[in-house]
Every structure is written in structure tokens, then in C-alpha cells.
Amino acid sequence: MNTEMLAMILAGGQGTRLGKLTKNIAKPAVPFGGRYRIIDFTLSNCTNSGIKNVGVVTQYQPLALNNHIGNGASWGLDGINSDVTILQPYSSSDGEKWFQGTAHAIYQNISYIDQTNPQYVLVLSGDHIYKMNYETMLEEHKDNNASLTVAVIEVPIKEASRFGIMNTDENDRIIEFDEKPDEPKNNLASMGIYIFNWGRLRDVLLNSYSKDGQMIDFGKHVIPSYLEAGENVYAYRFSGYWKDVGTIDSLWEASMEFIDLENELDMKDKSWRMFSKNTISPPHYITETASINNSLIVDGCYIAGAVSDSILSTDVQVKEGSTIENSVIMPGATIGKNVTIKNAIIGENAIIGDHAVVYNEEEIEVVGYSEVIGVQIDED
């Protein structure tokens, strides 16, 4: 088997900053936008970019993620010359098991990559919301005769210290990398998206792990080593919508932006569709007591209350007298009667009992996966 570029999606993160939402599932499997999961955006970008072979590296709580991806059919990755492969940690003769970092995860899967025999390896994160044509990035990588290309995006300078910052020359060749600098020299932040010449990266990783095993992380170890060795390392500037939804605030903000039909993601664009594995549910039902304003309502919902500026995912129930504002209700959640929910994220299959209040003036309130809040729900 031989392919020009293989995509490796790093999807094993625990996502501790998402708190209750990732207690039982990996961050890339967290629902987003009513009918998607976060990893759908990266997988769909691969499909739309013409990438036919994808490895998904998992680790933390992978069951929901594995079930969601399946054989890749939802993204057209189940053909004769296309596939998606779930890659989980395994014990080896040297005792290695858990992936210790991003580069170590690639090293542990060298045998899989060699089977595909790519010229280039595209390393991606499974927990970002964005649209990107990776083929365009590859063309720039080739034009620059690069050994490594790093996708970057301009961020507000006041936030630059949160990111790995790429300092470049006038041709966008990276001359210095600062990991979360206190005083950043510019605002070109790494997006955690890399294209490597596979032969060179393979040699670097094998050489490291035959000696000291220091090449654990791309940002902390591999990129600095490439720069020190004088490799051709270039920045690829991305100017579209991109959101790292690794915190409760950023997940909620991205969800509120998603409600706007004119948002930069433009989900109506038929030339760059977002694909997902969706539950088959009946049409949503809106009772005569319901009122809905500026909200996204997905299949299977039953609504008898008031919903505004919110996202109701698949199979959500909202009983009579309840009010939901500026909130995200994830799949299968049940909201009882006379409930007030505002500025909140309600996890999958959560149950909010009658007369409960889910609202905090100081921060986004979160109800976890299958969590039960309040009294028993009255039957209709």
C-alpha cells in the first residue's frame, strides 16, 4: 500500500478542563452543535481534502469515540482504497504502553504508518472546531521544499502567551519557537497541525528512542530539534474560523457562535460538508405550549417549554413550563416541568427534575453525563 499523505488524528486526550463532560468519554467524542461530535470536524476536513487513509490515536475512555467512528462509513472512509483505523495503546517488548506525548504516540504507531508507506504524515488534533483544506497546506509544504510545516493562526496578542508561538522571517520560515512565552514576540500561534516528511520524522523518532527517548512531544521537543538541526520548517497561515474547545467557556462560546446562521463555519456550504454518524430519531415535536426563538432543534426533541438562543441536541425533552436560555442541551437529556436553565451546558442523558434551577451568575453551569439534578420528573 502506498499513499501520498496519511492523516494521524491525536484523539486520546482526557480533557480535564471540560470537567464533568469528559468524566466518561474522551474530549473528541463530546457532542457539539446538536448533531455532531467534536472529532467530526477533523474527520470531515480529511474527507473534503481528499485524504483517504486516516489513523485515529485514542487512549482515554475510547469506547464512545470508537463506536462513533466505526469503520468510517459516515465520512466515506470505508472504500477499497480508503480506511480509518483506531490505534490504541498496547504493551510491547520494551514495556511501553501509554502514549506519553504527541510525538511518542506517533512513534508507537510507526508499524501502522509503514504499512501505508506515505511520503507525508499529517498530524492533527481531534478536539478543534474548524474547516481547513489540508491539500492546500500540502501544496505550500511542497513549494517551500519543507521538512516540516506548522499551521498557525493569528490570535490576539494579549492571549498569545497561552500558545506555542512561531517566530518567522519574511518568507514565513520558522526561525524560533516559543512555548507559551511570557512576552510573545508575535501572535502566530501553532494550531497543533503539522505536515512532516515521513522519512525524516521516522529517522528522528527511531534515533531518539534508540538512545534517550527525549522526543516525547512535538511542540516541546521535535520542533525545537528540527530548528536546531537547520531543517526547512515553515509556517502555514490559516485565516478561517478555528476554536480550541478545551475549556467549558470556549465550548460554550463556540456553541453560541454556532447558533448564528451567518457564522464563519458556514454549515450550509454544500462544497465542504460536515459529516457525522447520527442517531436515527423521529421528527422533533413542538407542543402548543412551546415557544422557540433563535435556536437549533435536532431530531427526536419534544418541546413543551420556552427555548431561546440555545441548542437542543438529538432526543432532548423539555417539559411544560420550563425555560432554557443561552444553553447547550446534549443528546438524550430530559428537562422536567417548570425548570429554569440559563448559561449552562447539560450533558448527555442528564435528568433535570421538576422545578430545578440550573444557573450561576458567575460562570457557565455544567451538568455532567447522566447526572441527575432535582426531584423526580412528573409523567406527562
Structural key phrases:
EC 2.7.7.27, Spore Coat Polysaccharide Biosynthesis Protein SpsA, Chain A, 29 strands, 2 domains, single chain, alpha/beta, UDP N-Acetylglucosamine Acyltransferase, domain 1, 380 residues
What top-tier CATH class of the largest domain fits best? Alpha Beta
The largest β sheet comes out as: 7 strands, mixed
**Overall pLDDT, averaged?**
91
The residue ranges in which pLDDT falls below 50 over 5 or more consecutive positions are none
Explain how this protein is built.
This protein has 380 residues and is α/β, with parallel strands linked by helices. It has two domains: 3-259, Spore Coat Polysaccharide Biosynthesis Protein SpsA, Chain A (Alpha-Beta Complex), CATH 3.90.550.10; 285-373, 3 Solenoid (UDP N-Acetylglucosamine Acyltransferase, domain 1). 20% of the residues lie in helices and 27% in strands. The protein has eight helices and 29 strands. It has helices at residues 39-48, 63-69, 102-107, 110-116, 134-143, 198-209, 218-228, 248-259, and strands at 5-10, 31-32, 36-37, 53-57, 83-87, 120-125, 128-130, 148-154, 164-168, 174-179, 188-197, 233-238, 242-244, 285-286, 291-293, 296-297, 302-303, 306-308, 311-312, 317-318, 323-325, 328-329, 334-335, 340-342, 344-346, 351-352, 357-358, 365-367, 372-373. Helix 2 (63-69) links the parallel strand 4 and strand 5. The longest helix has 12 residues, at 198-209. The model has no long low-confidence stretch (mean pLDDT 91).
Summarize this structure briefly:
GO terms for molecular function: ATP binding; glucose-1-phosphate adenylyltransferase activity. By secondary structure, the chain is α/β, with parallel strands linked by helices.
